[in-house]
Amino acid sequence: MVRVAIIGASGYTALESIRWLLRHPQAKLTYLASRKEQQPVSEMFPELLGRILLPVQPFDAAAIAKAADVALVCLPHVAAMEHVPALLTAGLKVIDLSADYRLSDTVLYEKWYRHPHTDKANLDRAVYGLPEFFSAQIKSTQLTANPGCYATAGILGVAPLLQESLAATDDIIINAASGISGAGRTPSQAHHFPERNEAFEPYNIGSHRHSPEIEQTLSRILAQPMQIIFVPHLVPMDRGILATIYLKAQPGATEQAAVAALERVYANAPFVRIRKGQLPSTKFVANTNFADIAVKLYNHRWIVTVAIDNMVKGAAGQAIENMNLMFGLPETAGLL
Ligand SMILES: NC(=O)c1ccc[n+]([C@@H]2O[C@H](COP(=O)([O-])OP(=O)(O)OC[C@H]3O[C@@H](n4cnc5c(N)ncnc54)[C@H](OP(=O)(O)O)[C@@H]3O)[C@@H](O)[C@H]2O)c1
């Protein structure tokens, strides 16, 4: 049984992790760390009443290491790298859901996150936790950087057609829309109900922090520098991401070849489903760890559509998938 601690227990990704872990056959929640330690967990999340008796405790790396084998760090960036070093030193495996260990270049991190990176030593050994492309490295690391939600959808959609030389490597456009839970549980005016309800709008064009993450990962997969255009949108749903991706098709390429390429690249990826008839929808993946992908050829362009649940494949589910790999469990354990 893998013993699991959650750090930052009162947030959305923590709740989603708790929900999945309560049903995991080979993992057990043993420590909930929060700054709100005086509250019972069912007061933070009324839906958990009667389902979990664990106390909520302060962050104490030594106590966490006694109780747990792995910590899911569900904190905002910067706060994460303030806590991760102590957890690693205490001997825990760590899966960080924040962005602190995703960009391997500290200069890039400091440019996009406007904060100095304070844990370069651990950054250098962190593995990017996208199992479809890096499962071998994830299996042997102590520290996994869980990918961003938009980044997961974008990379899964773009990489295969480039790997299989069916698309040009320039002029790649990722348009993606996310439900509001992507912004976390901490309230803000921008995410207040009257501001968001009935509003579908783009934001952070050219400045969204998942752009360098997508570019870094595609560059790594393809072993050449990659640039993309990424335009995020907010849509008034609780959860879900739908990415529509435009790539230039190589002359003579057929839709059949593209579907075959996706099937080849994802032959051993239990959570990627290739949709051949109906196109992906956030409805079909809500509350699941699946990424649904379809590809169409239209006026010499590939239109790749990808749907994920930002809270599951985009966060907690992928973290548990990574945990499974790090502990030699079946990748799908607790997630189907
Ligand atoms: N929401 C998503 O769809 C999503 C997807 C992928 C990745 N992520 C990433 O996952 C991380 C958590 O996201 P979330 O949506 O769960 O956020 P959230 O709902 O805002 O929760 C974050 C939790 O972190 C703790 N916290 C906040 N500020 C802190 C600080 N300065 N020092 C220590 N603890 C602090 C709080 O818990 P306590 O008060 O209980 O300690 C808070 O509830 C973020 O880095 C986010 O970018 C989120």
CATH fold title of the largest domain? Dihydrodipicolinate Reductase, domain 2
What best-fitting shape do the alpha-carbon axes yield? globular
Lateral strand order in the biggest sheet: 3-2-1-4-5-7-6
The CATH architecture of the largest domain:
2-Layer Sandwich
SSE run? EHEHEHEHEHHEHEHEHEHEEHEHEEH
Strand content: 15-25%
Tell me the domain tally: 2
Class from secondary-structure proportions = alpha/beta
Instruction: Average the pLDDT over all residues and give the rounded result.
Output: 96
CATH superfamily of the largest domain: Dihydrodipicolinate Reductase, domain 2
Report the radius of gyration as a whole number of Å. Answer: 19 Å
Considering DSSP H and I runs of 4 or more, what fraction of the residues is helical?
Answer: 25-40%
Low-confidence stretches: none
Q: Give the ligands present.
A: NADP nicotinamide-adenine-dinucleotide phosphate
Number of helices: 13
Largest sheet: 7 strands, parallel
Assign the CATH class of the largest domain: Alpha Beta
Q: Count the E strands.
A: 14
End-to-end C-alpha gap = 18 Å
